[in-house]
Amino acid sequence: MDSYKIAFDINGNDNGIFAAIQASVEFAQKNPHFNIILIGPQSQIQDLITEKYSTFPQNISIIDNPNIASNPDNIRASLHEDTSMNQAIELVKNQQADAVLSSGNSGLYLATSTFKLKRLPNISRAAFMPIIPTIIGRKFLLLDVGANIDSKSDFLVEWAKIANVFAKVILNTQKPNIALINIGTEDSKGTEVVREAHQILKNDKSLNYIGFREPRDILNYVCDVAVIDGYGGNLVLKSLEGAILSFKKLLKEKIMMTPTRKLGFLLAKNAFRDVAETLDYRNVGAAWVIGVNGVAIKSHGSSDSKAYLGALNQIKIALENNILAKVKKAIENE
Amino acid sequence: MDSYKIAFDINGNDNGIFAAIQASVEFAQKNPHFNIILIGPQSQIQDLITEKYSTFPQNISIIDNPNIASNPDNIRASLHEDTSMNQAIELVKNQQADAVLSSGNSGLYLATSTFKLKRLPNISRAAFMPIIPTIIGRKFLLLDVGANIDSKSDFLVEWAKIANVFAKVILNTQKPNIALINIGTEDSKGTEVVREAHQILKNDKSLNYIGFREPRDILNYVCDVAVIDGYGGNLVLKSLEGAILSFKKLLKEKIMMTPTRKLGFLLAKNAFRDVAETLDYRNVGAAWVIGVNGVAIKSHGSSDSKAYLGALNQIKIALENNILAKVKKAIENE
User: Fold this and answer.
1) ipTM
2) pTM for this one?
3) Residues linked to residue A225 through DSSP beta bridges, in sequence order
């Protein structure tokens, strides 16, 4: 069996470094052919390990780097600082690691991955692509969710091709349904950018393009790949997440109002548990950075160990299926 | 007490004309100083009335017009057809009615209102503005939700001024909190359009502008007026609605799976009822057409009588508070 190395920048989580360690230990124990390189504050990592674990997996190593960017908004300066993020990405660049995972600043991670790993041939822009759960259990890829404010129709088409490969591998679908997310389903609807992309994709025989879909139905499962400009995609993602969080909050408040309702909740509790599992936000916490010459994923800044484990497992599937080579082949066939 | 006339185009509802009649009767009985002019298929209306009501309010009249646009996408041709929508809007134009309500084709209604009523001075574009409920019970105005695909920063600023007046009147708030909905809260986030509007609104002392807000928190109540370009606003609205519908559907499925869960649901049923009342979509079914020289509102194409009643009650508040004059004053003070 091939072996793989994952560079894991563990600084930059709002809740400290333990969730990353916990997920790494669990993942490393289950996957002896993977090596995890933790990049973070070495002595703190070692103290935590000594405190919490009797044995420590041999396939985890540590690189001491406690530094995060002094000002993540200053990308030019940040690129040259000795940070754990830069070091993690450089491990991939220098082929000392096969993939990189970070929960640091999103904008900086995207810019640094693009700058250090370079864009893939024929790809104009990198994009963020999370996996989103639907109510029927199937998941879909949504992109771009905010890497790009101004998108062109070509970007959407290029992203569709890359996401098509990811959907085959990560979602295990033979012929992924690709949709453009739009404010209506008729050809005339939406921005010029999305209408142009629609015309190009309709004529692309390499993709199973199914046309425009509206965000209203998206969580019921309408497609395997949902392509949209970064501005729209970010609004959609945050609206979907926000609406569900608000609804749950309100329902909880109304349930706690009387003892009878509380009893009813206890009896129906497993239904709520099932719903939470189906729509687990921790599936959404990680977003692929696509379009760069490397396997890179971004975890949410407040990821817990389950969220990190989800990201590590996605990386595993991606590497074991040689995803980068497949992506390159798909976009070189142009 | 002043008396008012509402022109009600009752064609164009997917479920027929009865919901409109039902809402009109209920509204007319409660509000003798309002006259409702139903524009629709007269004999069918009269048959329904005879069948369902022993007495018919004297403050409802009927204009016979069973016609809808032959091709609503052809706006130029539709403007000259003898349709109930055109007739309803013309009643307002000719000061034979004070407000117009329709659930016909959205794009056509917007174009026709703009063409026949004309835009208000200093206003570049008309916009759609629904009232959205939040989980704390307060409501907010969201605009534009799709009247304009390409928006400029000036449009957002103009809409903010109009919506500020509507929020005072319709939401009964003294100093409405105005926000721009954006993909982040820092000054540097978002499109050039929204960043420019942000700078203009920050310096506008006539408005209580509170800055950028993200759609993630919007249903928890963050502002009274949420301004966004029409493309983004439509995506946000459909994502919010869709996420809640999907979540409810999934929860229902999971509850129906076992007898114990069903029993629990029965005990907690009132909590669900409370949630449904707080987030009643029928408050969202109607959207104001703002920026035109007239009081115009659009109801959803599948409105039931409660949704229509909501729209009629909004019109009532608007007219009794002389909203159009207040809007004109606010935008003339430039």
Assistant:
1) 0.94
2) 0.95
3) A141, A178
Q: How far is B64 from chain A (nearest CA, A)?
A: 32
Chains A, B: CB contacts within 8 A come to 191
Bridge partners of A268?
A: none
Compute CA A184 distance to the chain's CA centroid, rounded to the nearest angstrom.
27
Are the CB atoms for B138 and B148 separated by under 8 Å? no
The CATH T-level fold of domain A1-123+291-322 is: Isopropylmalate Dehydrogenase (3.40.718)
Domain ranges of chain B: 1-123+291-322, 130-281
> How does pLDDT run along chain A (334 residues), one tens digit per residue?
789 999 999 998 988 999 999 999 999 999 999 999 999 999 999 999 889 988 888 999 999 999 999 999 999 999 999 999 999 999 999 999 999 999 999 999 999 999 999 999 999 999 999 999 999 999 999 999 999 999 999 999 999 999 999 999 999 999 999 999 999 999 999 999 999 999 999 999 999 999 999 999 999 999 999 999 999 999 999 999 999 999 999 999 999 999 999 999 999 999 999 999 998 866 656 999 999 999 999 999 989 999 999 999 999 999 999 999 999 999 986 5
Q: Which residues of A touch B188 (CB under 8 A)?
A: 73
Beta bridge mates, A227:
A143, A180
State the Cα–Cα distance between residues A140 and A137, nearest whole angstrom. Answer: 10
The answer regarding whether domain B130-281 maps to CATH 1.20.58.340 reads no
Nearest chain B Cα distance for residue A159, angstroms: 20
Spatial contact of A321 and A99, defined as CB atoms under 8 Å apart:
no
Q: Residues of B with CB below 8 A from A269's CB?
A: 264
Any B CB within 8 A of A276 CB: no
- A257 reaches B (C-beta below 8 A): yes
* Bond before A144 cis per omega within 30 degrees: yes
Does A263 reach chain B within 8 Å, measured CB to CB? yes
Name the pairing type of β-strands B177-181 and B34-40: unpaired
SS3 (DSSP) at B207? coil
Task: Establish how many alpha carbons lie within 13 A of residue A207's alpha carbon, considering only the half-sphere containing its beta carbon.
Answer: 34
Q: A275 to chain B: which residues are within 8 Å by CB? A: 247, 250-251, 254
Is B196 touching A (CB cutoff 8 A)?
Answer: no
- Residues of A whose CB is below 8 A from B284: none
Task: Enter the DSSP assignment of A51.
Answer: H
Chain A interface, best mutation among B75, B110, B227, B254, by max A CB count within 10 A? B254
Nearest chain A residue to B273, by CA? A254
Matching fold, domains B1-123+291-322 and B130-281: yes
